[in-house]
Amino acid sequence: MKLVKLTPMSSYKYIIVLLFGTCSILGYSQEILSAEQAISLALENNYEIRMAKNELSIDSLSHSAGFSGMLPRVNAFLDDNNSIQNLEQTRSDGTVNSQDDAKNNSLNYGLELGWTLFDGFKMFATHERLKEQINLGSNELKEAIINNLSEVLITYYDLVQQQQQLAALDSTVVISKQRVTLAQNRFDIGKASKLEVLNAEVDLNTDQTLFLEQKELYANTKVVLNRLLARDINANYTVAPEIKIDSGLFLPDLEAMASENNPQLLSYIIQNKIAKLKFKEIRASRYPTVIATTSYNFSESESSLGFTTNSSSHGLRYGVGVNLNIFDGFNQNRSEKIAKLRIDNSKLLIEQQEKTLLAQLSVAHKTYLTNLQLIALEHKNESMAKENLEITMEKYRIGIIPTIEFRTAQLNYINAQLRHSNAIFKAKLSEISLKALSGILPM
Protein backbone atom coordinates (compact mmCIF):
# COMPACT_ATOMS: atom_id res chain seq x y z
CA MET A 1 0.00 0.00 0.00
CA LYS A 2 1.40 3.36 -1.00
CA LEU A 3 2.37 5.70 1.85
CA VAL A 4 1.42 9.30 1.19
CA LYS A 5 3.85 11.92 2.46
CA LEU A 6 2.11 14.04 5.06
CA THR A 7 1.69 17.69 4.15
CA PRO A 8 -0.95 20.26 5.11
CA MET A 9 -4.05 18.44 3.98
CA SER A 10 -6.77 20.29 2.14
CA SER A 11 -10.11 18.57 1.60
CA TYR A 12 -9.13 17.90 -1.99
CA LYS A 13 -5.89 16.13 -1.09
CA TYR A 14 -7.59 14.14 1.65
CA ILE A 15 -10.19 12.88 -0.81
CA ILE A 16 -7.38 11.82 -3.16
CA VAL A 17 -5.91 9.67 -0.38
CA LEU A 18 -9.26 8.01 0.29
CA LEU A 19 -9.90 7.37 -3.38
CA PHE A 20 -6.47 5.81 -3.74
CA GLY A 21 -7.28 3.37 -0.96
CA THR A 22 -10.63 2.60 -2.56
CA CYS A 23 -9.18 1.93 -6.00
CA SER A 24 -6.45 -0.33 -4.63
CA ILE A 25 -9.05 -2.53 -2.96
CA LEU A 26 -11.79 -2.71 -5.56
CA GLY A 27 -9.47 -3.87 -8.32
CA TYR A 28 -11.14 -2.29 -11.32
CA SER A 29 -9.36 -4.68 -13.67
CA GLN A 30 -11.71 -7.45 -12.47
CA GLU A 31 -15.08 -8.28 -14.01
CA ILE A 32 -17.74 -5.89 -12.72
CA LEU A 33 -20.88 -7.90 -11.96
CA SER A 34 -24.02 -5.75 -11.99
CA ALA A 35 -27.19 -6.57 -10.07
CA GLU A 36 -29.00 -7.09 -13.38
CA GLN A 37 -26.37 -9.60 -14.50
CA ALA A 38 -26.64 -11.43 -11.19
CA ILE A 39 -30.42 -11.68 -11.64
CA SER A 40 -30.00 -12.97 -15.20
CA LEU A 41 -27.49 -15.62 -14.10
CA ALA A 42 -29.74 -16.72 -11.24
CA LEU A 43 -32.76 -17.09 -13.52
CA GLU A 44 -30.70 -19.21 -15.90
CA ASN A 45 -28.58 -21.28 -13.52
CA ASN A 46 -30.07 -21.42 -10.02
CA TYR A 47 -30.87 -25.04 -9.15
CA GLU A 48 -34.09 -24.40 -7.24
CA ILE A 49 -35.48 -22.29 -10.07
CA ARG A 50 -34.57 -24.96 -12.62
CA MET A 51 -36.26 -27.67 -10.53
CA ALA A 52 -39.39 -25.52 -10.19
CA LYS A 53 -39.44 -25.15 -13.99
CA ASN A 54 -39.28 -28.92 -14.36
CA GLU A 55 -42.17 -29.34 -11.90
CA LEU A 56 -44.22 -26.92 -13.98
CA SER A 57 -43.44 -28.98 -17.10
CA ILE A 58 -44.65 -32.10 -15.27
CA ASP A 59 -47.93 -30.36 -14.38
CA SER A 60 -48.35 -29.22 -17.99
CA LEU A 61 -47.85 -32.75 -19.31
CA SER A 62 -50.36 -34.11 -16.79
CA HIS A 63 -53.14 -31.81 -18.03
CA SER A 64 -54.65 -33.95 -20.77
CA ALA A 65 -57.93 -35.57 -21.73
CA GLY A 66 -56.30 -38.97 -21.31
CA PHE A 67 -55.20 -38.31 -17.72
CA SER A 68 -58.70 -37.03 -16.99
CA GLY A 69 -60.34 -40.28 -18.16
CA MET A 70 -62.17 -38.69 -21.10
CA LEU A 71 -60.68 -40.84 -23.83
CA PRO A 72 -61.32 -44.52 -24.60
CA ARG A 73 -58.83 -47.23 -23.68
CA VAL A 74 -57.83 -49.69 -26.39
CA ASN A 75 -56.01 -52.90 -25.50
CA ALA A 76 -54.65 -55.75 -27.55
CA PHE A 77 -54.94 -59.22 -26.00
CA LEU A 78 -53.58 -62.66 -26.70
CA ASP A 79 -54.41 -65.85 -24.81
CA ASP A 80 -52.72 -69.10 -25.88
CA ASN A 81 -53.40 -72.25 -23.79
CA ASN A 82 -52.02 -75.71 -24.44
CA SER A 83 -52.33 -79.02 -22.62
CA ILE A 84 -51.26 -82.67 -22.94
CA GLN A 85 -53.52 -85.06 -21.01
CA ASN A 86 -54.64 -88.67 -20.79
CA LEU A 87 -58.37 -88.48 -21.65
CA GLU A 88 -61.24 -90.92 -21.28
CA GLN A 89 -64.76 -90.04 -22.41
CA THR A 90 -67.96 -92.09 -21.88
CA ARG A 91 -70.67 -91.10 -24.30
CA SER A 92 -74.41 -91.32 -23.70
CA ASP A 93 -74.64 -94.53 -25.78
CA GLY A 94 -72.10 -96.22 -23.52
CA THR A 95 -69.22 -95.91 -25.94
CA VAL A 96 -65.93 -95.24 -24.23
CA ASN A 97 -63.16 -93.28 -25.98
CA SER A 98 -59.76 -92.79 -24.48
CA GLN A 99 -56.42 -91.46 -25.60
CA ASP A 100 -53.10 -90.97 -23.88
CA ASP A 101 -51.09 -87.81 -24.40
CA ALA A 102 -54.03 -86.07 -26.05
CA LYS A 103 -53.12 -82.56 -27.12
CA ASN A 104 -55.50 -79.65 -26.71
CA ASN A 105 -54.88 -75.98 -27.46
CA SER A 106 -56.89 -72.81 -27.73
CA LEU A 107 -55.86 -69.39 -29.06
CA ASN A 108 -57.77 -66.16 -28.48
CA TYR A 109 -56.60 -62.74 -29.65
CA GLY A 110 -58.00 -59.41 -30.72
CA LEU A 111 -58.62 -55.78 -29.74
CA GLU A 112 -60.93 -54.45 -27.06
CA LEU A 113 -62.12 -50.90 -26.38
CA GLY A 114 -63.55 -49.50 -23.17
CA TRP A 115 -64.96 -45.98 -22.90
CA THR A 116 -66.44 -44.34 -19.83
CA LEU A 117 -69.47 -42.51 -21.15
CA PHE A 118 -70.62 -41.08 -17.85
CA ASP A 119 -69.07 -41.00 -14.37
CA GLY A 120 -71.05 -38.31 -12.62
CA PHE A 121 -68.96 -35.59 -14.37
CA LYS A 122 -65.86 -36.71 -12.46
CA MET A 123 -63.71 -36.64 -15.59
CA PHE A 124 -64.55 -32.98 -16.20
CA ALA A 125 -63.75 -32.04 -12.61
CA THR A 126 -60.45 -33.94 -12.89
CA HIS A 127 -59.60 -32.16 -16.12
CA GLU A 128 -60.25 -28.78 -14.51
CA ARG A 129 -58.23 -29.76 -11.41
CA LEU A 130 -55.23 -30.69 -13.57
CA LYS A 131 -55.53 -27.29 -15.22
CA GLU A 132 -55.43 -25.61 -11.80
CA GLN A 133 -52.34 -27.71 -10.98
CA ILE A 134 -50.61 -25.95 -13.88
CA ASN A 135 -51.60 -22.59 -12.39
CA LEU A 136 -50.31 -23.75 -9.01
CA GLY A 137 -47.05 -24.94 -10.56
CA SER A 138 -46.64 -21.64 -12.37
CA ASN A 139 -47.21 -19.77 -9.14
CA GLU A 140 -44.78 -22.02 -7.27
CA LEU A 141 -42.19 -21.25 -9.95
CA LYS A 142 -42.80 -17.53 -9.39
CA GLU A 143 -42.40 -18.04 -5.64
CA ALA A 144 -39.13 -19.92 -6.18
CA ILE A 145 -37.88 -17.12 -8.44
CA ILE A 146 -38.79 -14.38 -5.95
CA ASN A 147 -37.28 -16.24 -2.99
CA ASN A 148 -34.03 -17.00 -4.78
CA LEU A 149 -33.74 -13.56 -6.37
CA SER A 150 -34.27 -12.02 -2.93
CA GLU A 151 -31.39 -14.10 -1.59
CA VAL A 152 -29.22 -13.21 -4.58
CA LEU A 153 -29.92 -9.49 -4.28
CA ILE A 154 -29.40 -9.45 -0.51
CA THR A 155 -26.06 -11.20 -0.95
CA TYR A 156 -25.12 -8.92 -3.84
CA TYR A 157 -25.80 -5.69 -1.94
CA ASP A 158 -24.14 -7.14 1.13
CA LEU A 159 -21.06 -7.43 -1.07
CA VAL A 160 -21.44 -3.80 -2.15
CA GLN A 161 -21.61 -2.75 1.50
CA GLN A 162 -18.62 -4.88 2.40
CA GLN A 163 -16.72 -3.45 -0.53
CA GLN A 164 -17.42 0.07 0.75
CA GLN A 165 -16.37 -0.90 4.26
CA LEU A 166 -13.22 -2.50 2.91
CA ALA A 167 -12.34 0.72 1.12
CA ALA A 168 -13.04 2.74 4.26
CA LEU A 169 -10.84 0.46 6.36
CA ASP A 170 -8.11 0.67 3.73
CA SER A 171 -8.25 4.46 3.95
CA THR A 172 -7.95 4.42 7.72
CA VAL A 173 -4.89 2.16 7.42
CA VAL A 174 -3.35 4.75 5.10
CA ILE A 175 -4.02 7.49 7.67
CA SER A 176 -2.65 5.34 10.51
CA LYS A 177 0.55 4.73 8.55
CA GLN A 178 0.90 8.49 8.08
CA ARG A 179 0.40 8.92 11.80
CA VAL A 180 3.17 6.37 12.58
CA THR A 181 5.53 8.18 10.22
CA LEU A 182 4.73 11.56 11.75
CA ALA A 183 5.09 10.22 15.31
CA GLN A 184 8.44 8.69 14.42
CA ASN A 185 9.60 11.99 12.88
CA ARG A 186 8.49 13.89 15.99
CA PHE A 187 10.31 11.36 18.18
CA ASP A 188 13.49 11.65 16.08
CA ILE A 189 13.60 15.44 16.58
CA GLY A 190 12.73 15.17 20.26
CA LYS A 191 9.19 16.59 20.10
CA ALA A 192 7.41 13.35 21.09
CA SER A 193 7.99 10.41 23.40
CA LYS A 194 8.47 6.79 22.40
CA LEU A 195 5.05 6.12 23.90
CA GLU A 196 3.44 8.20 21.16
CA VAL A 197 5.18 6.10 18.50
CA LEU A 198 4.15 2.86 20.18
CA ASN A 199 0.53 3.99 20.47
CA ALA A 200 0.48 4.88 16.79
CA GLU A 201 1.91 1.47 15.85
CA VAL A 202 -0.61 -0.38 18.05
CA ASP A 203 -3.48 1.53 16.42
CA LEU A 204 -2.05 0.75 12.99
CA ASN A 205 -1.92 -2.95 13.82
CA THR A 206 -5.51 -2.79 15.03
CA ASP A 207 -6.63 -1.14 11.79
CA GLN A 208 -4.75 -3.70 9.69
CA THR A 209 -6.37 -6.53 11.63
CA LEU A 210 -9.84 -5.11 10.97
CA PHE A 211 -8.93 -4.66 7.33
CA LEU A 212 -7.79 -8.30 6.95
CA GLU A 213 -10.91 -9.62 8.70
CA GLN A 214 -13.12 -7.55 6.43
CA LYS A 215 -11.17 -8.74 3.39
CA GLU A 216 -11.75 -12.37 4.41
CA LEU A 217 -15.48 -11.78 4.92
CA TYR A 218 -15.69 -10.07 1.53
CA ALA A 219 -13.97 -13.02 -0.21
CA ASN A 220 -16.22 -15.57 1.52
CA THR A 221 -19.38 -13.67 0.58
CA LYS A 222 -18.26 -13.68 -3.05
CA VAL A 223 -18.13 -17.46 -2.87
CA VAL A 224 -21.68 -17.53 -1.46
CA LEU A 225 -22.96 -15.39 -4.33
CA ASN A 226 -21.21 -17.62 -6.86
CA ARG A 227 -22.97 -20.61 -5.31
CA LEU A 228 -26.36 -18.90 -5.57
CA LEU A 229 -25.64 -18.13 -9.23
CA ALA A 230 -24.62 -21.79 -9.77
CA ARG A 231 -21.33 -20.90 -11.37
CA ASP A 232 -17.65 -21.48 -10.57
CA ILE A 233 -17.35 -20.70 -6.86
CA ASN A 234 -13.87 -19.29 -7.43
CA ALA A 235 -14.94 -16.87 -10.15
CA ASN A 236 -13.42 -13.48 -9.35
CA TYR A 237 -15.29 -10.23 -9.83
CA THR A 238 -16.19 -6.96 -8.20
CA VAL A 239 -19.63 -5.44 -7.70
CA ALA A 240 -21.14 -2.01 -8.20
CA PRO A 241 -19.51 0.78 -6.14
CA GLU A 242 -22.76 2.04 -4.61
CA ILE A 243 -26.30 1.04 -3.70
CA LYS A 244 -29.22 2.88 -5.26
CA ILE A 245 -32.41 3.05 -3.20
CA ASP A 246 -35.94 3.21 -4.57
CA SER A 247 -37.41 5.86 -2.29
CA GLY A 248 -40.85 5.87 -3.93
CA LEU A 249 -42.52 2.86 -2.33
CA PHE A 250 -45.95 3.72 -0.87
CA LEU A 251 -47.84 1.35 1.41
CA PRO A 252 -51.31 1.51 -0.29
CA ASP A 253 -49.73 0.72 -3.66
CA LEU A 254 -47.76 -2.17 -2.17
CA GLU A 255 -50.87 -3.61 -0.52
CA ALA A 256 -52.79 -3.50 -3.80
CA MET A 257 -49.95 -5.17 -5.70
CA ALA A 258 -49.51 -7.82 -3.00
CA SER A 259 -53.18 -8.85 -3.18
CA GLU A 260 -52.71 -9.52 -6.90
CA ASN A 261 -49.11 -10.76 -7.08
CA ASN A 262 -48.00 -12.28 -3.76
CA PRO A 263 -47.18 -15.87 -4.77
CA GLN A 264 -48.00 -17.47 -1.43
CA LEU A 265 -51.43 -15.83 -1.29
CA LEU A 266 -52.13 -16.84 -4.90
CA SER A 267 -51.08 -20.41 -4.10
CA TYR A 268 -53.64 -20.59 -1.28
CA ILE A 269 -56.35 -19.23 -3.60
CA ILE A 270 -55.51 -21.88 -6.22
CA GLN A 271 -55.41 -24.60 -3.57
CA ASN A 272 -58.93 -23.57 -2.55
CA LYS A 273 -60.09 -24.08 -6.15
CA ILE A 274 -58.38 -27.47 -6.26
CA ALA A 275 -60.06 -28.50 -2.99
CA LYS A 276 -63.47 -27.63 -4.47
CA LEU A 277 -62.73 -29.65 -7.60
CA LYS A 278 -61.61 -32.64 -5.53
CA PHE A 279 -64.97 -32.45 -3.74
CA LYS A 280 -66.70 -32.64 -7.13
CA GLU A 281 -64.63 -35.71 -8.01
CA ILE A 282 -65.66 -37.41 -4.77
CA ARG A 283 -69.29 -36.35 -5.16
CA ALA A 284 -69.36 -37.97 -8.61
CA SER A 285 -69.35 -41.42 -6.98
CA ARG A 286 -73.03 -40.90 -6.05
CA TYR A 287 -73.95 -41.17 -9.74
CA PRO A 288 -73.87 -44.29 -11.90
CA THR A 289 -70.88 -45.03 -14.07
CA VAL A 290 -71.67 -46.02 -17.63
CA ILE A 291 -68.98 -47.84 -19.61
CA ALA A 292 -69.27 -48.94 -23.23
CA THR A 293 -67.15 -51.90 -24.30
CA THR A 294 -66.47 -53.47 -27.65
CA SER A 295 -63.93 -55.91 -28.97
CA TYR A 296 -63.05 -57.85 -32.08
CA ASN A 297 -62.00 -61.40 -31.24
CA PHE A 298 -60.27 -64.20 -33.08
CA SER A 299 -60.55 -67.68 -31.54
CA GLU A 300 -59.06 -71.02 -32.57
CA SER A 301 -59.07 -74.35 -30.76
CA GLU A 302 -57.90 -77.92 -31.43
CA SER A 303 -58.69 -81.09 -29.49
CA SER A 304 -57.37 -84.60 -30.05
CA LEU A 305 -60.52 -86.20 -28.62
CA GLY A 306 -64.18 -85.22 -28.76
CA PHE A 307 -66.98 -84.42 -31.14
CA THR A 308 -65.16 -81.30 -32.40
CA THR A 309 -61.47 -81.56 -33.03
CA ASN A 310 -60.99 -78.13 -34.60
CA SER A 311 -62.94 -74.87 -34.38
CA SER A 312 -62.36 -71.20 -35.13
CA SER A 313 -64.36 -68.00 -34.85
CA HIS A 314 -63.97 -64.26 -35.21
CA GLY A 315 -66.29 -61.33 -34.84
CA LEU A 316 -67.40 -58.24 -32.98
CA ARG A 317 -68.57 -58.09 -29.40
CA TYR A 318 -70.11 -55.03 -27.77
CA GLY A 319 -72.04 -54.03 -24.72
CA VAL A 320 -72.74 -51.41 -22.07
CA GLY A 321 -72.07 -51.73 -18.37
CA VAL A 322 -73.60 -49.67 -15.56
CA ASN A 323 -72.20 -49.50 -12.04
CA LEU A 324 -73.83 -47.71 -9.13
CA ASN A 325 -72.63 -47.60 -5.55
CA ILE A 326 -75.57 -48.54 -3.33
CA PHE A 327 -73.81 -48.95 0.00
CA ASP A 328 -70.12 -48.75 0.92
CA GLY A 329 -70.22 -48.60 4.71
CA PHE A 330 -70.97 -44.84 4.66
CA ASN A 331 -67.50 -44.17 3.22
CA GLN A 332 -68.98 -41.87 0.58
CA ASN A 333 -70.50 -39.61 3.23
CA ARG A 334 -67.28 -39.53 5.21
CA SER A 335 -65.20 -38.75 2.12
CA GLU A 336 -67.47 -35.82 1.25
CA LYS A 337 -67.32 -34.43 4.79
CA ILE A 338 -63.52 -34.64 4.76
CA ALA A 339 -63.41 -32.86 1.40
CA LYS A 340 -65.64 -30.06 2.73
CA LEU A 341 -63.41 -29.60 5.78
CA ARG A 342 -60.42 -29.28 3.47
CA ILE A 343 -62.25 -26.57 1.55
CA ASP A 344 -62.91 -24.72 4.82
CA ASN A 345 -59.25 -25.01 5.79
CA SER A 346 -58.15 -23.64 2.43
CA LYS A 347 -60.41 -20.61 2.99
CA LEU A 348 -58.93 -20.06 6.44
CA LEU A 349 -55.41 -20.19 4.97
CA ILE A 350 -56.37 -17.45 2.50
CA GLU A 351 -57.75 -15.23 5.26
CA GLN A 352 -54.72 -15.91 7.47
CA GLN A 353 -52.27 -15.12 4.66
CA GLU A 354 -54.10 -11.89 3.81
CA LYS A 355 -53.82 -10.69 7.41
CA THR A 356 -50.21 -11.85 7.70
CA LEU A 357 -49.27 -10.18 4.43
CA LEU A 358 -50.77 -6.83 5.46
CA ALA A 359 -48.95 -7.00 8.79
CA GLN A 360 -45.64 -7.87 7.13
CA LEU A 361 -46.02 -5.03 4.65
CA SER A 362 -46.88 -2.55 7.39
CA VAL A 363 -43.88 -3.50 9.54
CA ALA A 364 -41.48 -3.63 6.58
CA HIS A 365 -42.67 -0.26 5.29
CA LYS A 366 -42.16 1.42 8.67
CA THR A 367 -38.64 -0.01 8.78
CA TYR A 368 -38.11 1.19 5.21
CA LEU A 369 -39.13 4.77 6.07
CA THR A 370 -36.94 4.75 9.18
CA ASN A 371 -33.96 3.54 7.17
CA LEU A 372 -34.46 6.33 4.62
CA GLN A 373 -34.28 8.86 7.46
CA LEU A 374 -31.18 7.16 8.85
CA ILE A 375 -29.45 7.48 5.48
CA ALA A 376 -29.84 11.25 5.53
CA LEU A 377 -28.75 11.46 9.16
CA GLU A 378 -25.69 9.24 8.72
CA HIS A 379 -24.68 11.08 5.56
CA LYS A 380 -24.66 14.30 7.52
CA ASN A 381 -22.68 12.66 10.33
CA GLU A 382 -20.12 11.34 7.86
CA SER A 383 -19.63 14.79 6.34
CA MET A 384 -19.11 16.36 9.75
CA ALA A 385 -16.78 13.57 10.87
CA LYS A 386 -14.73 13.99 7.71
CA GLU A 387 -14.36 17.74 8.22
CA ASN A 388 -13.46 17.18 11.86
CA LEU A 389 -10.76 14.66 10.88
CA GLU A 390 -9.23 17.04 8.35
CA ILE A 391 -8.98 19.79 10.96
CA THR A 392 -7.65 17.37 13.58
CA MET A 393 -5.02 16.00 11.18
CA GLU A 394 -3.68 19.49 10.53
CA LYS A 395 -3.60 20.31 14.25
CA TYR A 396 -1.86 17.02 15.01
CA ARG A 397 0.71 17.71 12.29
CA ILE A 398 1.71 20.97 13.88
CA GLY A 399 1.63 19.38 17.34
CA ILE A 400 -1.09 21.36 19.10
CA ILE A 401 -3.35 18.38 20.06
CA PRO A 402 -2.53 15.05 21.74
CA THR A 403 -2.45 11.78 19.83
CA ILE A 404 -5.57 10.44 21.57
CA GLU A 405 -7.65 13.30 20.14
CA PHE A 406 -6.38 12.49 16.67
CA ARG A 407 -7.27 8.80 17.12
CA THR A 408 -10.72 9.72 18.36
CA ALA A 409 -11.35 11.85 15.27
CA GLN A 410 -10.06 9.05 13.05
CA LEU A 411 -12.32 6.45 14.66
CA ASN A 412 -15.29 8.80 14.55
CA TYR A 413 -14.83 9.19 10.83
CA ILE A 414 -14.42 5.51 10.03
CA ASN A 415 -17.42 4.65 12.23
CA ALA A 416 -19.49 7.34 10.50
CA GLN A 417 -18.57 5.84 7.13
CA LEU A 418 -19.51 2.35 8.27
CA ARG A 419 -22.81 3.51 9.79
CA HIS A 420 -23.70 5.40 6.62
CA SER A 421 -22.92 2.37 4.48
CA ASN A 422 -24.90 0.13 6.83
CA ALA A 423 -27.91 2.47 6.79
CA ILE A 424 -28.00 2.35 2.99
CA PHE A 425 -27.71 -1.43 3.04
CA LYS A 426 -30.56 -1.77 5.55
CA ALA A 427 -32.74 0.49 3.44
CA LYS A 428 -32.01 -1.73 0.43
CA LEU A 429 -32.95 -4.81 2.44
CA SER A 430 -36.26 -3.15 3.33
CA GLU A 431 -36.84 -2.32 -0.32
CA ILE A 432 -36.14 -5.90 -1.41
CA SER A 433 -38.44 -7.26 1.32
CA LEU A 434 -41.30 -4.96 0.31
CA LYS A 435 -40.97 -5.83 -3.37
CA ALA A 436 -40.76 -9.56 -2.60
CA LEU A 437 -43.92 -9.41 -0.46
CA SER A 438 -45.67 -7.49 -3.22
CA GLY A 439 -44.53 -9.99 -5.86
CA ILE A 440 -42.83 -7.35 -7.98
CA LEU A 441 -39.16 -8.28 -7.78
CA PRO A 442 -37.48 -8.32 -11.23
CA MET A 443 -38.63 -11.44 -13.06
From TrEMBL:
<dbReference type="GO" id="GO:1990281">
    <property type="term" value="C:efflux pump complex"/>
</dbReference>
<keyword id="KW-0812">Transmembrane</keyword>
<dbReference type="GO" id="GO:0009279">
    <property type="term" value="C:cell outer membrane"/>
</dbReference>
<keyword id="KW-0813">Transport</keyword>
<comment type="similarity">
    <text>Belongs to the outer membrane factor (OMF) (TC 1.B.17) family.</text>
</comment>
<dbReference type="InterPro" id="IPR051906">
    <property type="entry name" value="TolC-like"/>
</dbReference>
<keyword id="KW-1134">Transmembrane beta strand</keyword>
<dbReference type="InterPro" id="IPR003423">
    <property type="entry name" value="OMP_efflux"/>
</dbReference>
<keyword id="KW-0472">Membrane</keyword>
<dbReference type="GO" id="GO:0015288">
    <property type="term" value="F:porin activity"/>
</dbReference>
<dbReference type="GO" id="GO:0015562">
    <property type="term" value="F:efflux transmembrane transporter activity"/>
</dbReference>
<keyword id="KW-0998">Cell outer membrane</keyword>
<dbReference type="Pfam" id="PF02321">
    <property type="entry name" value="OEP"/>
</dbReference>
<protein>
    <submittedName>
        <fullName>Outer membrane efflux protein</fullName>
    </submittedName>
</protein>
